[in-house]
């Protein structure tokens, strides 16, 4: 993009998310402020319990913050109700989970088609787009296979295809390589990196591994529900 | 989208066919019971109507006393009729074709060393006209015989029991102390609407019956036939008026006799079968209820098992009402399939039962449609709670499940 200061795709301001109340209250997010621009590849790291998953849930509109503002494309979404958040996820967001979360006893193709069903696409178009997405992750030849017939790395690539199929503006990945060995992890990260570079896909990813975070342009370090540091990585600086 | 949901539901159901089948077994049995019962009930109602036709739809039965149920009962202390009443009704009323006295007693008929317990009916030749009954062999009573001689006409069953294939005409049989000559054999009529064998009968002249068997000239029952084209109401009116006159019943006094029509008889029989259908339908309703609870139970289990799937669907953008619909449609499709199975099973049972009971097989499209709608409704009612609990799941919790 030629613009020097593009309007941020995502802007969080003073976001909190509290669980429980009184003495037992947990401040999972305790005043998070950050912006993510279109086309960025952001990694989030931090100690266990620092609020990374909570932040991802808020960013992914699976959860509502206790307070603060969340502007998505300049629109306030912090106060949306369940059904409105579902629509937002349907049209703008894609998810990749640590545990793949594919539907068992459904083919790879059916899994990738799932978001398109809720987008109301006709069957033929659905299949075409799902195949396209599977092709993008290099698994078109496994379209008819069940998840149980695929390796962990392949399952995660099917999950990536599912996240891509709906043509989202942002893909959110919470520990996408958490269940994979180093070799598979690197393959997945290279795929995400490629999608980010070649298609301008905005990616926000949580990881525990420094090596994986290095694939991103920017690294956010969270501690105790707050953003501790926010810097460019070697790749981002390059 | 709806078709998509139905397809999805079918997929989920067929993924575990045995469990799905066991789940809907209650509905299958309930619907099958209703369909089988109603179909057989309709068959027997049709059969009753046909049977009443064989009794003679244009018959009236006159019995003494205020009988409430059917002919022959409730006579009690009421004044009996006389033979002259039969003649008066037959001669004076243009609406009445003819009539016959009827007195009945259970006796043992003996021929040689064969005997058979049967019903001896004291009447006269007019009885054959009234009941539209033809002779298979021999002749009716002569007037000389009707004067009190010992002659008899055998029903088909009695003839078979006593004589087998031999010719009974001219032979003497014994009825108690009375020895009488067989002069005729009636055509076979088959079972009555009550299920009794109409052919298990011996007719003897009324006067002979009165003197030698009953020891009284009282006529306990008069059977009348209406003339063609006369309405039942008019004939009943005429008979009532004449009998009140003969029996000197003053205005404002109640009748001390009852006129039964075949319409009453058939409606009584239909009434019995309706009560039966009602009772069995209650049983069916209970079994549908149990079936519905079975569906609810399995759907709740299914929602729990598929919590993660629900979370995934919500994550990719399914709204609560879409999740609700998915599970509701699944339980409707499940119970409707159970309904279809039940309808097929019920019709098969009804066809089998109709064959065994020798009644016509008369499926009722209305009842079949109703049973289907009802089974689908069971799916809605009992699927709602599980579907709502699926829709209310929190996507984050569901994904973590
Ligand atoms: N549903 C919940 N109810 C109560 N407390 C919660 C809930 N979810 C998270 N928390 C708390 O919020 C804090 C942040 O949790 P979160 O899952 O965001 O951590 P995380 O950074 O993702 O940790 P990890 O690296 O182990 O995944 C933790 O203290 C956690 O116990
Ligand atoms: Mg986490």
UniProtKB/TrEMBL annotation, chain A:
UniProt entry keywords in alphabetical sequence: ATP-binding, Cell inner membrane, Cell membrane, Membrane, Nucleotide-binding, Transport
A GO molecular function held by the record: transmembrane transporter activity
GO cellular component terms, A-Z: membrane protein complex; plasma membrane
The keyword Coiled coil belongs to this UniProt entry's keyword annotation: no
CDD domains: ABC_MJ0796_LolCDE_FtsE (cd03255)
Coiled coil: none
Pfam families in the record: ABC_tran
Ranges for domain ABC transporter: 10-236
Domain of life: Bacteria
InterPro entries registered for this protein in UniProt: AAA+_ATPase, ABC_transporter-like_ATP-bd, ABC_transporter-like_CS, ABC_transpr_LolD-like, MacB-like_ATP-bd, P-loop_NTPase
Family: Belongs to the ABC transporter superfamily. Macrolide exporter (TC 3.A.1.122) family.
Protein name per its UniProtKB record: ABC transporter ATP-binding protein
Record organism: Thetidibacter halocola
UniProtKB/TrEMBL annotation, chain B:
One cellular component (GO) term of this entry: plasma membrane
Entry keyword annotation includes Cell membrane: yes
Domain ABC3 transporter permease C-terminal: 282-395
Signal peptide: none
Domain spans labelled MacB-like periplasmic core: 20-241
InterPro entries cross-referenced by the UniProt entry: ABC3_permease_C (IPR003838), MacB_PCD (IPR025857), Macrolide_Exporter_MacB (IPR050250)
Membrane topology: Multi-pass membrane protein
Keyword DNA repair: no
A single GO molecular function term of this UniProt record: transmembrane transporter activity
Main location: membrane
The entry's keywords: Cell membrane, Membrane, Transmembrane, Transmembrane helix
Compartments reported by the entry: Cell membrane
Membrane spanning stretches: 21-40, 275-303, 324-354, 366-385
Family: Belongs to the ABC-4 integral membrane protein family.
Protein name: ABC transporter permease
Source organism of the structure: Thetidibacter halocola
